Structure formats: structure tokens, C-alpha cells
TrEMBL record:
Superkingdom in the source lineage: Bacteria
Single Gene Ontology MF annotation: N-acylneuraminate-9-phosphate synthase activity
Coiled coil residues, start to end: none
Any Gene Ontology biological process: carbohydrate biosynthetic process
Name this polypeptide is given: N-acetylneuraminate synthase
Organism: Clostridium folliculivorans
Any Pfam family the entry gives: NeuB
InterPro entries the UniProt entry points to: AFP_Neu5c_C_sf (IPR036732), Aldolase_TIM (IPR013785), NeuB/NeuA (IPR020007), PseI-like (IPR051690), PseI/NeuA/B-like_N (IPR013132), SAF (IPR013974), SAF_AFP_Neu5Ac (IPR006190), SAF_PseI/NeuA/NeuB (IPR057736)
NCBIfam families: NeuB_NnaB
SUPFAM superfamilies membership: AFP III-like domain, Aldolase
PROSITE patterns with a match to the protein in the record: AFP_LIKE (PS50844)
Length: 334
């Protein structure tokens, strides 16, 4: 199986199920493996006095609270069931991140294939235990985390008997600047915990994800939107459907470039060998009975004869047949 590409719709539907369905269509169009939303009850995750994150203030202003901003982005469980069914119809996998226990229970009940946990929950150990008990594969984003916090989180999940964990390196900043990406931290987690790793990409462009795939990421997640100019906290740092399609293409091309790791000629190279490689040939006209010496031999194309490495089997041997200049010297000639 190739890299698993998650098109992160998140809350870019702005609380409108019709926009959410269009996002599903766009994710399918782009070639993503799955489309992911966020399922939550605002009052269960955000206090009414919580301030917005810096990037949220930059994208939506400071007039309203974080609670009021997020409440407008909420969909009902019935609407998510409708979205799941629409994903089935469109033949793309439906995923949603649960942000609290009720939503976790709901998503497990409607048959999501895995649980994607956001970076905000790395230190929420009680919730991690509840997630682990669902016995579903887990993808855990690790933005804002230290290696020690990730270790505690993964051990908490393991303590419930669930070892199907993929760790996502991430930087919780929208958009993330190149100097803050630190893809080598993904390798650090892979080596430290011996688990599959991926990258939740909040940069602008394709380069970070392509590099992550080259470094061994097996899951890539990317935010996308129908319109970067829409009102909401995540649109500005998200890809358009066309950009997402190019993003998926870049990852699939990178997979092809990486290959299987076996060093061998390709089928096309095998055909090129005959024209491009060199063989042992007569450096001039040679008569039968001559004992071959180095000055009687050259290495020239085509590559259909004896390889130059076999010269030790030719030197000092007597010719049985006369040869013309540039004629291949075969074992039958000596």
C-alpha cells in the first residue's frame, strides 16, 4: 500500500453540510484516500472565556471568543452520518477527529475505520485511554509536543492493549514556516518508538510533504478548502481543490521515484545495455593463431559481447579464428 493521503476538511465547511459535501467531492477529485472532518460539541471542549490562538486571531479577528467562533463551525451527529453515507457513495473513506467522549462513541458506532487524534489531546491521557479502548487503529498528531509527552501518550494507549498507532509529526501553526517544520523529528519518533510515522502538513506548498514521504512517512494529511477567502480560521492556510490535486500527484510521483530499493537495471535499461555498454573487441585485424595481448584488445560498444571484466579469460589465449578490427571477441574464438 502506498502513502495514505488524508484530505483534511476539518471545519472548512463553516457549519454548512452542503459545503461539507462539496469538500468530499473535491477530496475525491484530488485523488485523496480519505477526507477528514472534526466532530465535537463545543461546550464540552472550549470554555467560554478561552482566548483564540494567534493564528485564529490573524484569520478571524478578536471580536468574538474562541467558543463563539467554534460554535458556528459545529455540525450535528445526524449530519455527520449523512456525510459518512455521502463518502460511501463517492467511494472515499470518511474519517473525523473526535474531540470529546460523546463524539468518540458516536464515531465508533457509525463505523469509522480509524481514530485520528489531534495534537491538542497528546496530554489528555484519560481521553487517550478511552480512544484506545475502541480497539481501532489510531493516528496521533504530535504538534506542540516534546518527545517525553509523546512517549507518555503512546504508553498510555499501549496500556489499554491497543498497539496500532501511527505518530504524525506536526507543527501547530497555520501556515507553518519552513524553519519550523523540523522533519527530522519525525525520524526521531520513528526510531524512538518503532512505529509508523507520518506528517500533518500545515505549510504552504508541496515541498514539506514530498520531503516527509522521502524520509519514510506512510500517512500525509493536508488541509484544503473550497475558497481560501472564506470566513473561518483555517481557510487561508488550506489548499484549493486544484492545489490538493497537484499535492496528491506530487506525493504519488515521489513514491514512484523512491521505488522498491532493489538495485537492478530496469527493463528499459536492460534494452539499453546492448547499445551503451562495452564489449571486448579486436583493436585491429587479427590472424588465427595469434596469442592475444593487451594491445590487440579494446573495449567498445555494442555491449552484446564479453564484458570488459572478463579480459582475464582472454589475455594469453590463442585465436582459433581470424578477426576484423572492432569485431567482438567471443569464447568460441579462443
Amino acid at each position: 500500500m502506498g502513502v495514505y493521503i488524508i484530505a483534511e476538511a476539518g471545519v472548512n465547511h463553516n457549519g454548512d453540510i452542503h459545503l461539507a459535501k462539496r469538500l468530499i467531492e473535491a477530496a475525491k477529485y484530488a485523488g485523496a484516500d480519505a477526507v477528514k472532518f472534526q466532530t465535537f460539541k463545543t461546550e464540552k471542549i472550549i470554555g467560554k472565556f478561552a482566548q483564540k490562538a494567534e493564528y485564529q486571531v490573524e484569520n478571524t479577528g478578536s471580536a468574538e471568543s474562541q467558543y463563539d467562533m467554534v460554535k458556528k463551525l459545529e455540525l450535528t451527529y445526524d449530519q455527520f452520518t449523512e456525510l459518512r453515507d455521502y463518502c460511501i457513495q463517492k467511494e472515499i473513506t470518511f474519517i473525523s477527529t473526535p474531540d470529546e467522549t460523546d463524539s468518540l462513541d458516536y464515531l465508533a458506532d457509525i463505523g469509522v475505520p480509524l481514530i485520528k487524534i489531534g495534537s491538542t489531546e497528546v496530554t489528555n491521557l484519560k481521553f487517550l485511554k478511552e480512544i484506545a479502548r475502541k480497539k481501532l487503529p489510531i493516528i496521533l498528531s504530535t504538534g506542540m509536543s516534546t518527545l517525553g509527552e509523546v512517549e507518555l501518550a503512546i504508553n498510555t494507549i499501549y496500556s489499554e492493549g491497543n498497539r496500532e498507532v501511527t505518530l504524525m509529526h506536526a507543527t501547530t501553526d497555520y501556515p507553518t514556516m519552513a524553519e519550523d517544520v523540523n522533519l527530522k523529528a519525525m525520524i526521531t519518533m520513528k526510531d524512538a518508538f518503532k512505529v509508523p510515522v507520518g506528517y500533518s502538513d500545515h505549510t504552504l506548498g508541496n515541498e514539506a510533504a514530498v520531503a516527509a514521504v522521502a524520509l519514510g512517512a506512510v500517512v500525509i494529511e493536508k488541509h484544503f478548502t473550497l475558497d481560501k477567502n472564506m470566513e473561518g480560521p483555517d481557510h487561508a492556510a488550506s489548499m484549493t481543490p486544484e492545489e490538493l490535486k497537484s499535492f496528491v500527484y506530487a506525493i504519488r510521483t515521489t513514491e514512484k521515484l523512491l521505488g522498491d530499493g532493489i538495485k537492478k537495471p530496469t527493463k528499459k535499461e536492460e534494452r539499453t545495455i546492448e547499445a551503451a555498454r562495452r564489449s571486448i573487441v579486436a583493436s585491429r585485424d587479427l590472424e588465427a593463431g595469434m596469442v592475444l595481448t593487451e594491445n590487440m584488445i579494446e573495449f567498445k560498444r555494442p555491449g552484446t559481447g564479453l564484458k570488459p571484466e572478463f579480459i582475464k579469460f582472454v589475455l594469453g589465449r590463442k585465436l582459433k579464428n581470424s578477426l576484423k578490427e572492432d569485431q567482438l571477441i567471443t569464447l568460441d574464438d579462443i
